[in-house]
Amino acid sequence: QVQLAESGGGLVQAGGSLRLSCAASGRTFNNYAMGWFRQAPGKEREFVAGIRWSGGTTDYADSVKGRFTISRDNAKTTVYLQMNSLKPEDTAVYYCAVPSRVGGGYDYWGQGTQVTISS
Tell me, what DSSP letter sits at residue 53? Predict the structure, then answer.
């Protein structure tokens, strides 16, 4: 059974940085993408960043390009989200997710980690 565990959230001031981690377990993740999403209060969940497990191809939402960096450690089956120059509008619960099949939509989700940016 796939399990995803996020960590690293917290409260920081605007302009600060945080690094989120997502530890994945339960199967092999070769050729699978992994993504970070977020959901702010009263808003729908939105895509933040994604990375292919093999090859490292990345994708970002326009709102975070140049500020956030997604990376992965295949040996540890962990994906990271380095968030710099944080803004109050980045405040949200951040989730990592993985598809159940290669090329499919994101089906497995972690429990989320709260990120709060104060102005």
Answer: T
Task: Read off the pLDDT of residues 55-68 as tens digits, 9 standing for 90 and up.
Answer: 678 999 999 999 99
DSSP structure class, residue 41: T
Measured distance CA(38)–CA(63) in Å, rounded: 12
- How far apart (Å, rounded) are the C-alpha atoms in residues 31 and 2? 15
CA 6 to chain centre: 8
3-state DSSP assignment of residue 90: helix
At 62-86, the pLDDT tens digits run 999 999 999 988 776 899 999 999 9
Q: Which residue has the tokens 């339960």?
A: 26
- Find, among 105, 89, 88, 106, the residue nearest to 97 by Cα: 106
Give the largest Cα separation in the chain, rounded: 41
